[in-house]
User: Which sequence fits this backbone?
């Protein structure tokens, strides 16, 4: 039977297309415009070609921010993924405590980013913060406003506190979907706890973990609000990640051309990494079934 | 390998069972002899799987003891019991190859590599998967996966027992027959105690030396297929085994006669006084249709090939009879029962004749 073709249906997509055009595509085009032109205000633009891109690609400042960004993302992935899995494995599977733990785990996720930042900013203060003051009283030399290492630790611990729940909840959902028969078979086969994790739980969680890693990677790679509220990118530039640097450049120094070129490259890098990551993971999956 | 004894065993899935209906398994004493091939037969939900899981240690019974030989294993975890169990739906380790799947239980017991390789090859041959040993298990079809599960169940030679929980449900019919034959062969060769749960009577009767019939959380009869057919201990056994099941009629029993709706029927033996709800049971195979005996109304005749099944009614109660090939139905059909083949039941349980 021939399928009826009715191209009029495309008009149904039109409203969405218009909305997206105004909310995303046009602003992005403005950024593109700034990236290839130089302007001194009054809506006067001078063609700059790829000068801004050249300047940004060779800029030490950007290299350093990128380096810090990559290290930050790798560290929080290395902590949050195993920790999330560990928490999910130890959460109760049913009953009152299961719901209780779910709510408890969901709490950090419900807190707005700048509130999380403020909480930790105060929590870590040496003069009045519970954490900072306690550490100082114990004789630990902790001060996130002076010491780059302390600032890094604070920012990382804050991100772990805020986002490990997401990994844990996803992993928990993956674990809950494993039929009881698998655990029973493993007991019959006299498998060790490690084997159960390695051959049953981990393979069954793979799909959700892939999503968790992807989400956490993207989110951490564009992190802005929380470290900005806590450290403002300091001390010095030690916690200036890519988006903080970008915001400084664009709205602090009004270097709109370089900032626009920077944004476009930043966007493309995230797109590229996510695409590579996703393709590699799904291909691995396909090869295994062969 | 050892004898498995269930002593005063009962199980309820509720924390505080109050009435007998709360128990998935009612109190029972049962012995599975070492090296026996048993089929556990019963309708869905009668407690078969619970019983298996108690034997393998996946479920701890609410009361009673489980003994392997003389050792009390009631509180021993599954891993200590060294028992194999195959489930209704296939369980394979996705990321492993077929070979690794089959070797897994042996690896966990720390067997040496040469032995594992040899044993895995043997088992692969048994289940007909030699050519797929190096494939990943996850892409396989459901029945290939179930064959792997069966293989994993059979791979250990020193297990105390192998439990099969309706293992052939997902396997296609010709392979079913093949695998059942393999299981039989395996049993003859190694003499493991095997308990095979099924609700398919053909499967049960072809696999086992002894068939255990369960009904409503109880073992109602254990016996050879012939005993189950000729002298069902409970009306459920009579109804569940045989196709169609046993005919049952309410009757008054007096000596060596039964009275059905005022009609006298001769019994093969004399019975003492029988109380409660009394019934007589007769297999359709032992009902003869001719022009003498009890008058029946024929509702339907089904041709099943070798013979025909006559669905009739006697005094408003259904009655099935087998009409051998070549016989025709009389114009006014009447039936007679072979007296020696009639069983008498009181409150669903078989009453033994006097002097038996």
Assistant:
């Amino acid at each position: 039977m021939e399928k009826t073709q009715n191209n009029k249906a495309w008009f149904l997509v039109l409203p969405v297309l218009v909305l997206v055009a105004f909310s995303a595509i046009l602003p992005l085009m403005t950024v593109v415009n700034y990236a290839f032109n130089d302007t001194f205000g009054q809506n006067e633009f001078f063609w700059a070609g790829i000068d801004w891109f050249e300047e940004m690609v060779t800029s030490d400042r950007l290299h350093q921010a990128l380096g810090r960004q990559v290290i930050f993302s790798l560290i929080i992935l290395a902590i949050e993924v195993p920790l999330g899995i560990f928490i999910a494995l130890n959460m109760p599977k049913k009953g009152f405590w299961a719901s209780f733990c779910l709510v408890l785990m969901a709490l950090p996720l419900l807190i707005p980013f700048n509130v999380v930042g403020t909480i930790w900013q105060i929590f870590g203060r040496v003069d009045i913060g519970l954490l900072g003051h306690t550490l100082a009283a114990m004789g630990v030399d902790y001060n996130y406003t002076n010491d780059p290492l302390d600032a890094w630790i604070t920012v990382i611990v804050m991100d772990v506190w805020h986002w490990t729940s997401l990994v844990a909840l996803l992993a928990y959902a993956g674990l809950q979907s494993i039929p009881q028969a698998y655990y029973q078979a493993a007991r019959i086969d006299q498998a060790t706890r490690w084997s159960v994790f390695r051959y049953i739980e981990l393979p069954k969680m793979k799909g959700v973990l892939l999503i968790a890693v992807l989400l956490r990677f993207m989110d951490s790679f564009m992190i802005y609000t929380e470290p900005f509220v806590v450290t403002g990118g300091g001390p010095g530039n030690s916690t200036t990640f890519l988006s903080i640097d970008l915001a400084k450049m664009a709205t602090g120094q009004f270097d709109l051309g370089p900032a626009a070129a920077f944004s476009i490259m930043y966007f493309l890098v995230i797109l590229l990494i996510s695409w590579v990551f996703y393709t590699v993971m799904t291909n691995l999956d396909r090869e295994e079934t062969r | 390998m050892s004898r498995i004894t269930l002593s005063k065993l009962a199980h309820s899935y509720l924390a505080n069972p109050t009435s007998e209906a709360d128990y998935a398994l009612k109190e029972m004493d049962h012995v599975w002899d070492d090296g026996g091939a048993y089929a556990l037969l019963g309708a869905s939900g009668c407690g078969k799987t619970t019983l298996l899981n108690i034997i393998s240690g996946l479920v701890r019974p609410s009361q009673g003891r489980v003994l392997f030989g003389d050792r009390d294993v009631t509180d021993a975890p599954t891993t200590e019991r060294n028992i194999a169990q195959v489930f209704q739906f296939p369980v394979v380790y996705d990321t492993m190859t077929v070979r690794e799947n089959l070797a897994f239980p042996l690896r966990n017991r720390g067997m040496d590599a040469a032995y594992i390789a040899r044993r895995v090859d043997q088992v692969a041959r048994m289940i007909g998967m030699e050519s797929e040993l190096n494939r990943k298990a996850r892409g396989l079809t459901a029945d290939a996966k179930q064959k792997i599960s069966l293989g994993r169940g059979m791979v250990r030679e020193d297990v105390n027992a192998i439990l099969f929980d309706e293992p052939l449900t997902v396997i296609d019919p010709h392979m079913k027959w093949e695998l059942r034959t393999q299981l039989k062969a395996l049993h003859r060769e190694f003499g493991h105690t095997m308990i095979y749960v099924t609700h398919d009577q053909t499967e049960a009767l072809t696999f086992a030396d002894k068939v255990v019939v369960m009904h409503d959380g109880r073992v109602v009869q254990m016996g050879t297929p012939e005993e189950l057919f000729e002298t069902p201990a409970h009306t459920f056994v009579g109804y569940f085994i045989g196709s169609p099941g046993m005919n049952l009629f309410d009757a008054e029993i007096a000596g060596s006669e039964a009275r059905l709706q005022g009609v006298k029927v001769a019994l093969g033996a004399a019975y003492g006084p029988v109380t409660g709800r009394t019934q007589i049971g007769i297999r359709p195979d032992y009902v003869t249709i001719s022009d003498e005996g009890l008058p029946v109304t024929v509702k339907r005749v089904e041709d099943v090939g070798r013979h025909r099944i006559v669905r009739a009614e006697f005094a408003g109660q259904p009655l099935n009879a087998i009409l051998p090939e070549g016989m025709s139905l009389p114009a006014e059909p009447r039936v007679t029962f072979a007296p020696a083949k009639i069983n008498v039941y009181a409150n669903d349980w078989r009453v033994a004749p006097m002097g038996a």
In short: Chain A touches chain B at residues 179, 181-182, 184-185, 187-192, 195, 199-200, 203-204, 288-290 (CB under 8 Å). The longest strand of chain A covers residues 37-39. Residues 41 and 199 of chain A are 62 Å apart (CA to CA).
